[in-house]
Amino acid sequence: MSEILVLVEHAEGEVKKVTLELLTLARSLGTPSAVWAGPGITPEAKARLAEYGAEKIYVAGDGDIVDHVVAPKAELLAQLVAGKSPAAVLVAATAEGKEIAGRLAIKTDSGVITDAVGLSEGFVADQSIFGGGVNVHSRVRKGTPIVAVRPNSTAPVAAAGAGAEEEVSVTLSDAAKAARVVERVKQEKGARPELTEAAIVVSGGRGVGSAENFSVIEGLADSLGAAVGASRAATDAGWYPHQFQVGQTGKTVSPQLYIAAGISGAIQHRAGMQTAKTIVAINKDPEAPIFELADYGVVGDLHQVVPQLTEEINKRK
Amino acid sequence: MNIVVCVKQVPDTATERKLRSDDNTLDRDAADGVVNELDEYAVEEALKIKEAQGGEVTVLTMGPGKATDTIRKALAMGADKAVHLSDDALHGSDALSTSYAMAQVLKKIGFDLVILGSESTDARTGVLAAMLAERLGASQLTLANKVEVGQGAITIQRLTDYGYDLVEAPLPAVVSVVEKINEPRYPSFKGIMAAKKKPVETLAIGDASIDAAQVGLAAAWSEVVDFAAAPPRAAGTIVKDEGDGGEKAADFLASKKFI
Fold it and tell me: Which residues form the signal peptide (chain B) (predicted)?
């Protein structure tokens, strides 16, 4: 089986769930090799990559790779594509993953597909476009297929690979080092999973009513181990930080479960969440368009329904 | 400071958006064309930088004839002039060919700073800014939440999942902006009138040394094989809260094994 490169998403030495999904997907189409970019790989991380099928783990541990914006990772992958001639390269369809894919496509003169929600033989990708209204099959016609796959598109399944480590050194061009990260500012978000890769997302909208009331949404999210999202109405009102906005001008999420509380379901919002597998909506207005999407809807006041739901979940755990 | 803002005309998301059944490309006639929303934030940011630093703001768009509406809007907001890359040979270009064609124009017209929205509401690939930086050998300052321009250098806050990165780079640079960065101004009546007199240069591919073999549907690096309307979601269960709405929702979540 031919080799497929999977760029590892990691933070503080830990492999992110989306990478396990990509390894699982890659296994159905070839032999996955994980690519670890930057310092900080741990024995646990290596074991995790092997557990999900990585036959090889390419490690480029140079700190320079992560001190600059995106370009060094694209150079590393381009070097591996030239040296290993893989059948495809998979990255996570996060904002950064897509940028890496874009630069890599140019470097290797290859086509790129972003936001794939599935991948089948011949690297034909499933995409859901226009806010979930149209399903598309697309494929790369030139070069090495480069595909950015949306988190939560595949259920991660363990199947041991050899996990043979191979050190890679990469010489970065001056151009790749142009944009330098001077400081990383972490904003407190507690122990919640990241919005774009969370399996469950609980979002609040205009119906939440105030910044303080978002604690109701957070309570439900925490009972489910979920991430918190917000509609544009809520972030515009300053009730919740902008980086949690789900929608056309915010993040796109594709979780297993999406709970929308006090969100009417305007196009702007639907464009960011419509590919969720299961959708639950809670809204006072029975005419709210969100109910057209909902697998389960409760017409009622979220300030009554959500605390009760949270309590029930905590009770049944 | 020579600032170029790239704007894209996209189908209005409030109307039905379609692909063409003959060649699987975007059906531009099916919906009204509007300025890509995030590009309005890019125009605003360019105008702010010009107001602080001096210089000139040029609007650059690639698209068919009717994309001039998009140019007029940006000019009415306060941009100085516009370049419209318009050629039938460009129809069906993918992200790689679009970035190639735009980079060729940018090389021709020159720039210190290129600013654009972080993605478009139609294709939503989010790759164009990174591709332009790669093709132009310029600094990539993308997903900017805040921009500060100094002498020959520029610093941005790059939005990340954990907060933001402070990123510094020399000019020339390609900047993409997120919605939080500013509040785009509305064109004034005076601005709308003034826009009618501002110069708009229309370029065909030959005018910008764009190789016809690198653009258009035939040259695209990727293709849509087929498409279909998404099947409508099966009607869900909707209940009215009678004081037990939370419990019922919990029952539903339990039936789906979420709890």
Answer: none
- pTM above the 0.80 mark? yes
Q: Thinking of the domain B2-231, which architecture would CATH place it in?
A: 3-Layer(aba) Sandwich (3.40)
Question: In chain A, what residues touch B229 (CB-CB under 8 Å)?
Answer: 133-135
**Residue B119 above 80 pLDDT?**
yes
Length of chain B: 259
Residue B174, pLDDT above cutoff 70: yes
pLDDT of A189:
64
* Residue appearing with tokens 């094989």: B225
Residues of B in contact with A311 (CB under 8 A): 246
Residue A206 known to bind ligand: yes
Residues with Cβ < 8 Å from A253, sequence gap 6 or more? Answer: A152, A195, A196, A198, A201, A227, A229, A246, A272, A273, A276
Is residue B214 within 8 A of residue B76, CB to CB? The reply is: no
A311 touches B at CB < 8 Å: yes
Distance of residue A294 Cα from the nearest chain B Cα, in angstroms? 6
Contact A135/B37, CB-based, under 8 Å?
no
Residues of chain A with CATH 3.40.50.620: 3-177
Is B154 in contact with A179 (CB distance < 8 Å)? no
Of A177, A232, A312, A314, which to mutate for an interface test with B (greatest number of B Cβ within 10 Å)? A312
Could you read off the pLDDT of B213-239 as tens digits, one per residue?
A: 999 999 999 999 999 998 888 889 999
Indicate the fold that domain A200-316 takes in CATH: Rossmann fold (3.40.50)
Evaluated on CA atoms A39, A44, A47, A48, the torsion sign reads: negative
Between positions 210 and 229 of A, the ones with CB within 8 A of B are 224
Is A262 marked as a binding-site residue? Answer: yes
CA distance A242 to chain B (A): 7
For chain A, residues classed under CATH 3.40.50.1220 are 200-316
> How far is the C-alpha of B10 from the C-alpha of A312, rounded, in Å?
45
* Residue B169 to residue A305, Cβ atoms within 8 A: no
Q: How far is B233 from chain A (nearest CA, A)?
A: 6
> Is residue A130's pLDDT more than 90?
no
